[in-house]
Amino acid sequence: MLSKRIIPCLDVRAGKLTKGIKFKGNVDIGDPVEMAEFYYNEGADELVFYDITASSDARAIMIDVVRRVAERIFMPFSVGGGLRNVDDMRAVLLAGAEKISVNSSAVQEPEIIRQGAEAFGAQCVVLGMDVLKVGVKPGIPSGYEVVIHGGRKPMGLDALEWAQRAESLGAGEICLNSIDADGTQDGYELTLTKLISQAVSIPVIASGGAGEPRHLAEVLTQGKAHAALIASMTHYGNYTIRQIKDYLDGQGIKVRNYW
Amino acid sequence: MIAIIDYEAGNLTSVARAIGHLGAPCLVTQDLEAIAGAERVIFPGVGAAGSAMASLKRLGLDQALRQAVASGKPVLGICLGTQIVFERSQEDLASCLGLLPGEVVRFPLRHVDAAGGPLKVPHMGWNRVSWRKPHPVFAGLPEQAEFYFVHSYYPKPSAPEVVLGVTEYGFEFASAVGRANLVAVQFHPEKSGAPGLKILENFLSWDGKAGA
After folding, report:
1. Are A20 and A31 within 8 A, CB to CB?
2. Do A98 and B196 touch (CB under 8 A)?
3. pTM of this prediction?
4. Looking at the 3D structure of chain A, how many domains does it have?
5. CA-based nearest distance A209→chain B, Å
6. E strands of A110-197, at which residues?
7. For chain B, how many structural domains are there in total?
8. Does residue A22 carry a pLDDT above 50?
9. pLDDT for B96-148, tens place per residue?
């Protein structure tokens, strides 16, 4: 039986860690390579790096970060942010990432999903989705709309339809971020997570809103998520991965508890 | 020297990095002489069986692998490398190396767990292995150790004696197989944290003789 995955998300800007609260007011809190090794030893099941700088200079810095991370940790990690084509993806994968994630670029050019899946296999391609609850309206039958550019730009694209389309294009996994819940630490958006998870046959990673272990238990059971992304709750030392996993274990949720 | 066979199937640097981390010299190579001269051979790979077999044949690596296994030197298959050692794969209806008896088949389209709940394909993430017989490459691993899997197809050996370990995902499938100097795992030891590194370390000191 698969374990539910706990995945710390590390936002990187110009080679340094940040943590955005509602995507604003990012502050540097350290070295991503050190943090990656810390989480590897702490029992995280996977890591996500999100490069929030998109210039070509910063790309080279990020590739160097990926290479150094891959030398130190022996578990899967994905890299997203500003990957616009197969060459961008290849550079990140060759540097040692297990997966790449595309978000805004896939909304603008959905074929990038197919191209990535054909070049590297669907298991390498994660679709990142930033989603806002807007209520049911014309063009948005699920009531959830896809937004891009870190939540600033609504796209008139229904989240449920986009998830299913991405799957058919070859996405191997969906990282589903609720803009409404992101940074609140009040819990994941359970309705949205369940809606998407039940509508696709690829795994869904829930993102946005984790503040305490109970939130992970909720999204992994009621929300039907396969994995849960966390950030602030462990980045600032409020909880350890072990504490979270012990709690989930106690709730009868299967987690990897030996590392 | 450990030869990591490069047949243009996915990124092999992670395997090389893990071996390097363990302090062993290794070479990612397509060179037939280097493979023939290597002390040990690792046969990794990510991708589809059909194109993998086509690349192997084009590069003459299918024969190099057969010779490596015949020579008695330790050979380790990983993921797609493991699938390719069987006779055939449902994926692309590929005819494979036939170094182990059996085939490789896909998880069902509507895969379910024991309670009837849906199971996603690919089988992706951390899962346990129940070891079926002692083997030097899998020595010293605690029962609760987990390994990282990413695959939609799984090995279905036709000879039960080649099954070294099984993993439960809706049903039990062979996740570790081997015979004599060949051992192969469906999961990624190079991505499985300390227990995975332990397997690679065991492989590096293995004399190529199976356990019990």
Report:
1. no
2. no
3. 0.93
4. 1
5. 23
6. 125-133, 144-148, 153-158, 173-178
7. 1
8. no
9. 999 999 999 999 988 998 888 888 888 999 999 999 999 999 999 998 999 99
DSSP code, position A109: -
The CATH number of the domain holding residue B37 is 3.40.50.880
Which residue among A76, A93, A226 places its CB closest to the CB of B120?
A226
The residues of B annotated with a catalytic role in the active site are 79, 188, 190
Range of the domain at B106: 2-204
Q: Any CB–CB contact under 8 A between B191 and chain A? A: yes
B86 domain-assigned: yes
Chain A touched by B125 (CB under 8 Å) = yes
Assign residue A230 the CATH number of its domain: 3.20.20.70
Active site residue A11: yes
Domain span holding position A145: 5-250
Could B10 and A120 be called an inter-chain contact, meaning their C-beta atoms sit closer than 8 Å?
Answer: yes
| pLDDT tens figures, A23-42 | 334 444 578 898 899 999 99
The answer to whether B142 contacts chain A (CB < 8 Å) is yes
Question: How far, in Å, CA of B142 to CA of B164, rounded?
Answer: 15
B129 touches B175 (CB < 8 A): yes
Does residue B212 belong to any structural domain of this protein? no
Cβ pair A125, A102 in contact under 8 A: yes
